[in-house]
Amino acid sequence: MNLIKMTGAAVFVSYDSGQKPNFSLAGGRTQSQMFWIDGGAGQNMRLGIGQVDVDPPVDTVQEVKILSNNYAAEYGGSAGGVIIATTKSGTNRLRGSAFEFFRHDALDALDFFAPVVDNRKQKALLRYNVFGGTLGGPILRDQTFFFLSYEGSRRQTGITRFLTVPTELQRRGDFSQTVDARGSPIVIYDPASSGTSRTPFPGNVIPQNRLDAVGLRLAALYPLPNRPGDNVGGANNFGANGTAHLERDNYMLKVEHTIRGNDKLTGRYLYNSDNQRQTSVFPEPAADSVTDALRHQNYFYVGYTRTFGSAVVNELRYTYGNRINHEMSPGLGGGWPTTLGLRGVSDEAFPRFTVAGVAALGATTHERRQFPIQQHQVVDTVSYVRGRHSLKSGLEVRPSINYEVNRPSISGNFAFTTQPTALPGRAGTGYGMASLLLGFPNSVTIRETEVLNRSSWYLAAFLQDDWTVGPDLTLNFGLRWETDTPIVDANERMNGFDPQAINPVSGTPGVVRFAGVDGWPTTPYETDWNNVAPRFGFAWRPFGVTRTVIRGGGGIFYAHPFDHGAPSSASLGFERSASLETPDNGLTAPFFLQDGVPSLNIATAVRDAGFGAVPAGRPTTTAVTCIDRNRKSGYARQFNLGLQQELPGRIVAEIAYVGNLSRNLAGPNLAINQIAPDRLRPGVTQRD
Asked: What is the pTM of this model?
């Protein structure tokens, strides 16, 4: 990635954080670059993975080529640029290398914002080691060669965290010292007193016999405050350095064999494992909000090159890649509901508890699995040299498959607000921690999506000609056709939206539709078959001046349809869920924690014409997400013009203009009800 940075065409959004690199090339979109490794795909962009999926070890890379604007018709599938990496090969001599790179916090200065504990700043931990080696040589001299490489990364990085946690008094139900950010006391009202005219607890202390057993166990899982806080209310009264752990291993094995003088066979295997976890700053890690991630990628590549005489070369390449992604909370599989004494929910994970005014307990999502994302790619190209023309044509077929299950709250997501301990209609009363200690939740939700089995095909063909008109002028003409078929689900677990149909529940236009039901198509939108992309470029030495070159060109480049959009979108209605909430804004408890969660019917939603709708005038309950059925392929018009001049001292100066005009790009969460600016009356803006 450092080579990409050095070009000056890349603008990095995030880098060196243990995540995949995120950057823009020459004004293109971030996470929209195509990565090629030895002529095969290096990521599955067709199903939403815009960043490079597998990194070859650094000592494996022989050459990196960056095409940021107006590249040849041979490349497509994205409007954000192309990164082409070529890996090293073995030779007749046995050669190898080894390396080690390290960083340590002992060599770093203190962070200005480091937390202060016992009047001393706490330096964040840093242990960073990158190590590896290569070995290449002959298997059969002059005929068969191998190249093997490995790179490992081990990193421990300190993460400074500030949280608001309950004080020792609050954990016992004593809120006599609890004040807001202005220093005003927060009065705790007894939800068992009469309805809307509640009475406060004497002395703002909850009696011991009213404390919920499960609530007390949860309160004990918080760390105790270790700093005064940012204000008199004690906000961010706990600070600590956690540690993010990254363990990454990259392997590559490449074998090349010359069958005959005109035939060459190449095989390559790339493997990457990427395990990330974060140590907790809580006494019990399962109670923290951190999430672990395990990712494994495998890429197999086979290439066959056949030379026909001196003018024709055919290359046939096949790449198979799979990616397994498993994100999970530390409390997964720990039997925590039983340990806490919380009945009525699954024992699979530590539940999530959001508590108004203090930090939440438990991870935001319990589990997400992609097992695996798969991609097959077949590319065949023919190169033909005739006179001053270098012709090249080719075909590409790329089917992709994604299996995914999302289990965000299999053991429940419990919400504790100020309402149960507030005086109705009186602002600044009630406290989330008091509601927790009374075991009085506002709501609980259990959610688990059905397994999604989605696939898509990418098809492309191209023809290009590099024409050497004369010693001072070269022209490039190209034409590319490509399309992405719509993502489909093998079990038709996709939703759409019909803005014209009248909803039977609300009596207004707008009905959520489901694939294959009542005549609704099984695809979320129609295939855009007319994606034709012309390309043109030139290089000219004006008037035979050998030290001056003018280059320029332009073309159309189509973006992939799920640029910045998840392949799991349009899955509304395909989850198993159940919820229970207070019927009157915290006046009546839906249940108490120590009594357990009442039996809930965890079932798939009824997918009918009235799905998610409410009668007109009632508050909405469902946020409809869908894919626009009339969408067209996004594209970019790219153009450039540049001048290169050789100066004395073997110095080359270059000046260039690069343009990128994008249209119809895919984007998530577009508000279709937003009023267009041209429909507003004079003097009114969208901010009014």
From this structure: 0.86
